[in-house]
Amino acid sequence: MTKKKAPTYRTVAYRCPACGTVIGQQVPPAGELWDTLRSCDQCRVQHFVLSDNDTLVVKVSFTALERVSRRRA
Ligand SMILES: [Zn+2]
Predict the structure, then answer these.
(1) Among 30, 31, 60, 70, which residue's Cβ finds the most Cβ atoms within 10 Å?
(2) DSSP state of 3
């Protein structure tokens, strides 16, 4: 019988790009890239968080996302 261990992820803190509140973000295992849409508990500004095992990149708001998708289209 094998028991599956629930993976534990390291957590890093970053500041909300809008209001500066500290937010915790889980770090994916090496070799994986996560993109997460988060909203700040304090100011409710939605922002995009890209994280891999070494880096955490925070991108702000739908305006930035729209610009990216327009460039791709
Ligand atoms: Zn905020």
Answers:
(1) 60
(2) P
